[in-house]
Design goal:
Layout lengths: L4 E10 L27 E3 H12 L3 E3 L3 E7 L5 E13 L12 H5 L5 E3 L5 E6 L6 E3 L13 E5 L5 E5 H4 L6 H4 L30 E3 L4 H15 L13 H11 L2 H11 L2 H4 L8 H9 L4 E4 L2 E4 L13 H5 L6 H7 L9 H4 E4 L2 H5 L12 H11 L6 E4 L2 E3 L4
Parallel strand pairs: 1-7, 2-8, 9-11
Antiparallel strand pairs: 1-5, 3-6, 4-5, 9-10, 12-13, 13-14, 15-16
Helix pairs in contact: 5-6, 6-7
Length: 400
């Protein structure tokens, strides 16, 4: 089941420090014209390759595997080279269609192992030219990207070369996926220097596009698509902290199946959130008494019932310390990183009544949340917190 290796990079160095003898005029290894000071630990790359092939033919080689190769000198003393497999390339068997493209080919993952064959070419080079000379040594050339790549620049100017197969489910990227084909036969989209990542190549004739998504989120999107195309090999676990970012990315890309997943995990905001009235403290207490888990944070009512078992601090600290009180101070104390803000929209179900908020006991009596924390919290939540119409034509703003 292992693919045949087309090329292998091999880094070599002497075993030990060379104190067990000098390779002086080793049999068949040193050609005429080599300087005297270079003769110690001097080998011919062709001879190293030949011995390695003889030792490993039809065997599996893995990146970072070490192989010891022995060489006799003119006095029949044995000297050894340590050969490290630094990189491997496998023979391409894909015919270019999505049906036969493997997940590794689709994601352009670097292979890490394969089987040695007669056609395997070894690229031998020294780990340190001062410790060993390799005549005819060479490094494995940098590989070329496939021709069906789309160069994607993210909002933070990072470059992703992505095979068209992975972008095919993204409806809004159709013109990039189909560039040079069908109705887009004469269109190869490009980007200006200001729009394009400086790392993206411009001379391979492949289309360029820019997405309003940061690199970390886009990487997660690609992992999700890979799990769709290759479910037997890849899985995808959606974290509630990333639901909002991935939902926005799905909308920007036209990736409906990802948006559906986000909505199923968090439930739809519109149907979940109470918009026509305030939530009273008595209701919160009643629901908590009946097995739900609602907490109060800066006037927001958050339902964390389905998530509590995943809480990084454990499932017991919130029920024992933060129920039926204003837990804003606790939230600041226990969440130094603003990463925790990313969860809030997924849990939000409405606003606590101002009447109850005024007399609500704090999680830390006599201590208030810092102004910097509250500003950060409001800058993230004000965009989606609801405003309750208490009187006709009058909206009550709730930032407490």
């Amino acid at each position: 089941d292992y693919k045949l290796l087309s090329a292998v990079g091999v880094e070599v160095h002497p075993r030990g420090n060379g104190s067990n003898g000098n390779i002086m005029n080793a049999k068949g290894l040193i050609s005429d014209g080599v300087k005297e000071e270079q003769k110690q630990w001097c080998f011919n790359a062709t001879d190293i390759s030949r011995r390695l092939i003889n030792q490993t033919f039809r065997s599996i080689l893995t990146v970072n595997e070490y192989i010891v190769v022995s060489f006799p000198d003119e006095n029949d003393n044995i000297h050894e080279l340590v050969c490290r497999i630094s990189e491997v390339r496998t023979q391409e068997e894909n015919d270019g269609t999505s049906r036969s493209m493997t997940s590794a080919e689709a994601t352009m993952d670097d292979p890490y192992r394969g089987r040695v064959d007669l056609g395997t070419e070894l690229y031998i080079y020294p780990s340190d030219p001062k410790s060993v000379t390799v005549l005819g040594g060479r490094c494995l050339p940098k590989g070329k990207l496939p021709e069906d790549v789309v160069h994607v620049t993210t909002s933070d100017m990072e470059w992703f070369p992505v095979r068209r197969l992975l972008l095919a489910p993204c409806i809004k990227l159709t013109k990039y996926v189909q560039a040079g084909r069908g109705k887009y036969k004469n269109e190869i989209p490009t980007l200006s220097d200001e729009e394009r990542s400086e790392d993206a190549p411009t001379d391979d004739g492949c289309p360029h596009c820019k997405v309003p998504i940061d690199c970390c989120t886009f990487d997660r999107v690609l992992l999700f698509i890979t799990s769709l195309l290759y479910p037997d090999e890849h899985s995808f676990a959606l974290d509630l902290s990333e639901v909002n970012a991935l939902s926005s990315a799905a909308d920007a890309l036209g990736l409906q199946v990802l948006d559906d997943l986000c909505q199923s995990q968090s439930s739809t905001f519109e149907s979940r959130v109470i918009k026509d009235r305030y939530i009273r403290l008595a209701e919160v207490k009643t629901r908590n008494d009946h097995g739900e888990l609602l907490i109060l944070l800066n006037g927001m009512v958050l339902d964390i019932s389905r998530w509590i078992d995943e809480h990084p601090g454990g499932p017991s600290i919130i029920p024992t310390q933060a129920l039926n009180i204003d837990c804003t101070v606790f939230f600041e104390m226990y969440h130094v990183s603003r990463q925790a803000f990313l969860y809030l929209k997924s849990f939000y179900i409405g606003e606590l009544s101002p009447e109850d908020a005024v007399n609500l006991r704090s999680s830390a009596e006599g201590v208030e949340a810092s102004e910097g924390f509250l500003l950060s919290l409001r800058s993230y939540t004000d965009e989606w917190r609801v405003s309750i119409e208490e009187k006709a034509g009058e909206k009550v703003h709730k930032s407490f």
